[in-house]
Amino acid sequence: MNKLNQKNPWIEYWSTDHIWSHSAFWRKQMEVFIRLTSNIMDYSETDTILDFGCGSGHFAEIMSHRIGSIVCADMSENYIQLCANKFANVSNVNVVEVKPDLSDLYKVGTAFNKVICFSVVHYFPDIDCVTRFLKGIQNIIVPGGKLLIGDIGNNKRSLNDYIKAVLFTLRQGMFLDALRLMTKVTLSDPDYSKIKQGGNSYLHIPDSYFMDISRELGIEITFLSSQLTVNSNYKHVLVEY
Ligand SMILES: C[S@@+](CC[C@H](N)C(=O)[O-])C[C@H]1O[C@@H](n2cnc3c(N)ncnc32)[C@H](O)[C@@H]1O
Question: Rounded to the nearest whole angstrom, what is the distance from the C-alpha of residue 51 to the centroid of ligand 1?
Answer without folding.
Answer: 10
